[in-house]
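Onboarding guide, step 5: your first structure request.
Type a short instruction followed by the sequence, for example:

Predict the 3D structure of this protein.
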Amino acid sequence: MMGLFSQAGSQLRRARGSSVVDDRAPEDTEPDDTSILDENEGSIITALISQLRVGMDLSKVTFPTFVLEPRSMLERITDFMSHPDLIFGAENYSDPEERFIRILQYYLAGWHIKPKGVKKPYNPVLGEFFRCRYDYANGTRGYYVAEQVSHHPPISAFFYISPANRVCIVGELRPKSKFLGNSVSTTMEGENRIALMGIPEDGEYVVTMPNMYARGILFGKMVLELGDTCIVKNERRGLTCDLEFKTKGFFSGTYNAIAGRVRKGSTEIGEFKNSRSVLFDATKDGQNIAPKYVAPEEEQEPYESRRLWHRLTLAIEARDMEAATEAKSAVEDAQRELRRRREERGEKFVPRFFELRGGRWEPKLSIPTDASSYAIETVENWIWPRA
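The system replies with structure tokens like these:
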């Protein structure tokens, strides 16, 4: 995805007054965005696809383990917490449009992190959770927790906060995948809700997600693309950006290019256009990823992501597809048995960290809005309760 930034550089300039994506594998793609299957992998995926029909919902289809990225979706969401410096201190800008641009930079920066080739993270099982801590260079900390709050339909809820840097993010993802013939599409429903706690009068910055396409699964090379349109908006300030992820093959121009228009109310005030300057330069700044601390697996609870999928991850890293399939099946079989027991007892699953309020998944926490040591301790004790 690095081409999304380094090749399709964009800037906001004064304005001059859902894409439909075709099914062709784009040419001249980035090496890290493509995969070439060997004979065994190709035969397995062909056998899988022979069972599918165009338009079929893939939520209950089991994919072969060689297409898996060795981490859970709950952890993959942390990619969007990788460059907090882009958003820290945004409340110090007096111009609402400048703060809005900082939010755009922060959001786009999360897309450059990905494994090589066409890979998908593990589908989290119900009740699975991932939590981590960030230790920043300025001596402050950030905290993150995500939980799979629903299995059918799949919903991942997540929460990030850095009290000292006055940033809070709450959101949920509801991916829906479909088979399209020579490609698989994933519609990323849900939203990120970002709050700059140092300037509460801004309210929330709401960000939706683009769709993802894995192309060339029947013929040609397998390619991963982002496509269609997502929206970044701040209702309090009347600011909106329609951000379009373009795909090569239907549009002219650069593979994985982006374009966008910023409006204030009904007036267009700027647009993103290919140029020499960038909102985020992944080649220059992409390595400056905020490191996260995750407890060793032996100290984790059974349903924490890394411990839960430990055997699968080891097998994938060893390229042992048979062991990976067995490990993945073991987790999924245990989940089915747990669901059967709940049904027999008439029990309903209750998420540990999140609850549904007003149609949105929110943390079971009275979110602190100050930067006091008490606020930090409150967050830490909620994510990692003391025995």
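Each response can be followed by summary notes, for example: The longest strand covers residues 183-196.
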